Amino acid sequence: MSEEKQISDFLNGKTEYTLGLFRFFIEQLAEMSEVNLRATKSMIVIESKTPFAYLTQLGKNFIHVVIPFDQPYENNLCFTKIAQVPGTEQFNHHLRIYFKEDINEEVKTFLKMAIDQC
């Protein structure tokens, strides 16, 4: 089974609104760097040279992205949750996107940081 089919299977049955958010998000990333999508059993891995973000949920009207960093970035308006992975120095930053406008300059700055660290 090809990766594209696996991603298609992951997106199958989602609302057109959510698929539009997903496509817009990927287009924004593609403007920053060459990106590759890889489906796993429970999520879509977004990678440049190495993985830098994980699309963990596609709801009826949102997409949920997790971005790992080696420190917490507490002073922001975009992350809904920041959680340290137990036993590591990794901090998962949770980003929930409801509207295209949610992918603002602050979000783009953090995405660029994630791409640059990989």
Describe this structure in words.
- With 118 residues, this protein is of the alpha+beta class.
- It contains 3 helices and 6 strands; from the N terminus they run H-H-E-E-E-E-E-E-H.
- It has a 6-stranded antiparallel β-sheet with strand order 1-2-3-4-6-5.
- The mean pLDDT is 94.
Distance between the termini: 27 Å
Strand fraction equals 25-35%
Order of helices and strands: HHEEEEEEH
Mean pLDDT: 94
SS-derived structural category: alpha+beta
Q: Point out poorly predicted stretches.
A: none
Summarize the topology.
Elements: H1 3-11, H2 16-32, E1 36-39, E2 44-47, E3 51-58, E4 63-69, E5 79-84, E6 91-97, H3 105-117
Would you kindly provide a brief summary of this structure?
With 118 residues, this protein is an alpha+beta fold. It has three helices and six strands.
Question: What descriptive keywords fit this protein?
Answer:
alpha+beta; 118 residues
